[in-house]
Amino acid sequence: MLSNIRIILVQTYHPGNIGATARAMKTMGLTRLILVNPRAFPDADATRLAAGATDVLDSAQVVSSLEEAVSGCVQVVGASARLRSMPLPHFDEPDDMAQRVMDNAQHQPVALVFGRERSGLTNAEIRSCTHQVSIPANPDYGILNLSQAVQILAYELHRQWRRRADSGFVYQTPSEAIPPTREQFGHFQAHLNQVMQRSGFLTQPHARTEEQLQALFARAEPSRKELSLLRGWLSALDAHLPQQSDS
User: Fold this and answer.
1) Contact indicator for 72, 44 with CB cutoff of 8 Å
2) Residues 233, 247: Cα–Cα separation, whole Å
3) pLDDT for 74-119, tens place per residue?
4) Partners of 76 in the beta sheet?
5) Start-end of H helices in the chain
6) 8 A C-beta contact, residue 130 and residue 124
7) Comparing C-alpha atoms, which of 4, 196, 3, 37 is closest to residue 116?
8) Do residues 177 and 223 lie in contact, with contact meaning Cβ atoms separated by under 8 Å?
9) What are phi and psi of 207, to 5 degrees?
């Protein structure tokens, strides 16, 4: 689905913005970059600012017209900082745009089009689009760098994609944050109860106290590593307690 999304830059002046755009795209799983009459490409500045996304640059397509860039697309969204007089459907919120785009991208190519750094898209170029989208920003200073605008809209696309049941997206979880199994948690509770009784904190079984402590640790949601640390502390404490006689 993400491979059906084209990011199109029209007459980009600074090649560094092309590299930064490639980086913004790759972080959100987008790979189809099309350049319409860039001033300079390939360029060392583009490669430098792409960082680890040079594969997106290497596969970028350079074309001579916007019409060629959007050929075959069922939806073309022009990113524009200002409203135009043309009666194109307009998305006030990027997430609304992303939802519609992802629906179409399931089966057919779609495109997001970004204009020149200083002047954006012309009215003629907007007419090549099916929709417009704006990024809500500070009305007193709504200026975004080209790659920043790409990053924001690419993030919204990726967010819509990863929420789909068929995306297969897996959120990263540090190994230290893996929760314990119920058996591991049960062993910890038994160990804790044993040490409380041996230390004299509980002179006899006290279900209410044990339940309250169990609820406390359940709310804390310790990880496996944290539970292991607690077990180690209990073992160290247990080793300094008087040994119980067998009689």
Assistant:
1) no
2) 28
3) 999 999 876 666 678 999 999 999 999 999 999 999 999 999 998 8
4) 111
5) 15-27, 44-50, 54-58, 66-69, 94-105, 123-126, 146-162, 182-198, 207-220, 224-239
6) no
7) 37
8) yes
9) -60, -40
What gap in Å lies between CA 234 and CA 237, rounded to an integer? Answer: 5
- Which residue type is seen at 87? P
177: left (phi over 0), alpha (psi -120 to 50) or beta: alpha
Cβ contact 45:17 at 8 Å: no
Compute the distance between CA of residue 68 and CA of residue 64 in angstroms, rounded to an integer.
7
pLDDT digits (tens, 9 = 90+) for 202-238: 776 666 888 888 889 889 988 888 899 999 999 998 8
pTM above 0.85, yes or no: no
Residue that the structure tokens 């350049």 belong to: 35
Contact 43, 147 (CB under 8 A): no
Spatial distance between the Cα atoms of 105 and 186, rounded to a whole number of angstroms: 48
Q: For 56, what's the count of Cα atoms within 13 Å in the CB-facing half-sphere?
A: 30
Give residue for tokens 């910890």. Answer: 188
**In this structure, what token pair is assigned to residue 200?**
């004299």
Q: How confident is the model at residue 175 (pLDDT cuts 50, 70, 90)?
A: low
